[in-house]
Each structure stands twice: as structure tokens, then as C-alpha cells.
Amino acid sequence: MHTWIPFLPYLLFSTLTPGVQGRRGDGSGDSDNYDSGENSGGGSTDSCATPKQPTIWKWDLIPNNADNYTSGGISGRDTSYDGSFFKGEASLHYTITEGETCYRYKDDAENTIQMLGYVWIGPQAPYPVGPTNPIIIGFKAWESRRSLDKISDSYSYIQWDESQIACPGYPDLFRITTTYGWTDFDARSYEAMDVMNMTISEAPTLAQGDRDQDQDRVHFNATMPDKLDHDTQWLLRFPGRICSNDLSYLLNTPPEQLAMNGSFTNTTFELTLSGSGKAVTSEKHQLSAEFRVSFSGVFDGDNSTEKLNLRQPDQPLVAWVPNSGLRVVSVGWMTSFICLGALMVFM
Hints:
Shape: globular
Strand content: 25-35%
């Protein structure tokens, strides 16, 4: 009998047991656990083990308060809070209006950047109390000239640190969730708040007998409040070539105005993220900038356990039903199949 066979039960247990899989992080913040290369220092890129063909990281679109209620890709768990993913094409339009000018920026420089993006939309979690938005939207976009059907090959890691001390990180230029969850270790409790105040509405009712695709559409509008009660996490930055040093809105210097609006149907999603205010470079130069990110996407049924089921009688305006067309296999079950196959071959 092979010496490794007795360890197969433990391996099966580890792949099927919640908590053993490392997808979720420890609950201390929405993005800290995911940007392993982006914010970590020390060591050269040779020790970073950066994947050559990384998969798109979508889980940082789900805030911790909602993530605690999702199935986490574990077969047999309740999926009613899993929400839905949308993939699509995006574009960034920006204007630097005043302040110290980056030497790489010229009046005739490109000011529209082609991107790809992802959206997660899900129900608001029942706990912890605090958020009042009826739904949560998470959005991210990264620069890419690939077409939407090549999106799976578009998520190449980027060396953001010109000194190359830090490891390459996710290519995301923009990432934000309308709700943020964190752990208050002093109070030993989970906390959550709305980062943007959101309203949702249905399309106006047409005359009897008239109907168009807008009748199945839900509109949303979200704006950042004047003051947030807790530090949050977002990513709002421009491609490195625009400025001699990374130009971005920092967490302690947020945009003066930030808004997200758009609409969605059961199978499509339209979103615009816009903002303006003082942005800074790594050399602390301040620039006044305006930006607008436009996203147009379609339902990613291959990666969603739930699908939208909008405007149904006796249901909330935005509701979900199980996605019977799901084709993705959870990591735990896939690994267990490999282990079982190995056991049958070698025993």
C-alpha cells in the first residue's frame, strides 16, 4: 500500500470543509487579504510567485458582512446571498483640470482608456445592522485592449512599484463596493456601513399594451456622503503612464464628489462611476482631476450560483433565484474528485 494513501481522508476533508479553504480571508477588511502583492514590501519579483495566467479575482467585490452569508463555493450551502456576477467592457475618461502638471501628461495625451470590468450585485446582509441600502454593488475595472470574449486572459499582474521592491499586484485601476464590512477587534464584533447612499427604482409604467425592454429594468443611483464614520477601502487610480508617479485618490484624501449610477436587467448591467477632486502622486504633488468610468456588461452565468429575478409579483423589486445554468465546479469538489480518482488508480 502506498504510504500517502492514509492521508487521502484528511485531504478530502480539507477540500470539503468550510474554513479550510483560503478563499475568504480572516474578516479584518474587504481588500487587505487579497492584495497580497500590491501592498506588501520586501523581496524581489523573483520571490513573488506571480502566476503567468492569473484568473480574475472577483471576491474582493463582496464586502465581508455579505461574504459571511455566501456559500463560499461550498456545495450544499445556502446560496441565497451569493448574488450575481456581470462581466463587461469599460472605459475611463479623465481630465486633469488644475495643479502641478505631471511631466508625462500633455494637453493632447490620450484621455480615454479602454478597460474590462466586473460587477457583483447581491442582497444586503441582515447582520451586522447599520447599512440601509437594499442591495450591494461591487465594481472593479482594469486596463485592457482585449475583447470581452478574451476577458479570462486579460488579468495580468502589474509591477506598480517602480523600485520593484513590492511584488506585482492585481491590475485593478478602480475598485469600490457600496457597502463596507470590517471586524472591530476591540469590541469583538462585526461592523458594516454604507460607503455610498443608494436608491433603486423601477422604470415608469407604460400605457396598457405598451411594453419595451426598459420595463424589466431597475435603475440605481448612489452617492458618497459628506462624511464617513469609519475608514473604508476603495481603489481609484489612473494608469502609471499618465503621471511620473502614480496618480490616485487616497483613502485619507477621497474625491470631493463620487457617484455611481446606472441600471440593470436580469441579464445586463450598465454602470457609470464618476468623481472629481484633489488627486495626489507618490511625490505628494496635488492635481485636480475629473474622471468617469463607464461599464456595460452581461450576466456571467458560468460563475454565478444565483441570477437576478427582477420585478416579480409579491417579491422585492430586486430578487434572486438559483442559476440552474451554472457550470463552474467549486474548488473543494474538484480537488476531491482528483483525490478519489488517484485512490482508485493506485490502491
